[in-house]
Design a protein that fits this description.
The chain is of the alpha+beta class. The chain has three domains: about 60 residues, Arc Repressor Mutant, subunit A, CATH 1.10.10; about 60 residues, no CATH class; about 35 residues, no CATH class. It is built from seven helices and seven strands, in the order H-H-H-H-H-E-E-H-E-E-H-E-E-E. The longest helix has 18 residues. The protein is elongated, with a radius of gyration of 25 Å.
């Protein structure tokens, strides 16, 4: 079955952010019905096929394999701050970047060092300078990486993927005992 022009727009928009509601709005569906229409479109076999074909084309053009993406997300999800920093009551010490493995280095989001000096003139006319060094160190977001891994492994689904679940910010977890039962949590 061939896609309608509106369905083609939906497919292109969905591949940008994987959000069925926003894709439906971008395709011209009413904001009032976009959530239901987005969900309905995702259940149609010919739209699923078009999504799979376009995703495969995108991956072929970029040379990216699904396994590469999954492996990078895994690196971020399981990174450990203790591999980079040691700390105690009276110290914080960063590990030398040259000692990091490639896997560890990829998990680093930001390293920033700021040095400031303040000079104060004393009553006797002499100057006193104090220096301060501030270091910011940040890893990529573990929760985001774990969420993406969980979505890929179908451990849970976003509430926005179906019209019957409530708040779009909630996460619906599939019950392992009863796959037909959805447990909803807020975050």
């Amino acid at each position: 079955m061939e896609l309608t022009p509106k369905q083609e727009l939906f497919v292109r928009a969905y591949l940008k952010d994987l959000n069925a509601t926003s894709a439906a709005i971008a395709a011209g569906y009413s904001p009032k019905t976009a959530r239901a229409m987005g969900y309905e479109n995702l259940t149609k076999p010919h739209i699923q096929e078009a999504l799979a074909d376009q995703l495969a084309d995108m991956m072929a053009r970029t040379g990216i394999e699904a396994q590469d993406v999954l492996e990078e997300i895994r690196r971020l999800a399981y990174s450990d701050m203790r591999d980079y920093v040691s700390w105690g009551p009276d110290h914080v010490t960063l590990v030398e970047s040259s000692t990091l493995t490639e896997e560890q280095a990829r998990a680093v989001k930001k390293v920033k060092m700021t040095e400031t000096s303040t000079t104060v003139v004393q009553k006797d006319g002499s100057e006193r300078t104090t220096s301060r060094t501030q270091v910011e160190f940040e890893l990529h977001d573990k929760v985001d990486a774990l969420t993406k891994l969980g979505q890929y492994l179908k451990l849970f689904m976003q509430a926005q993927d179906g019209p019957e679940t409530g708040d779009e910010r909630g996460v619906a977890l599939l019950s392992p005992e009863r796959p037909d039962k959805v447990l909803t949590f807020e975050h």
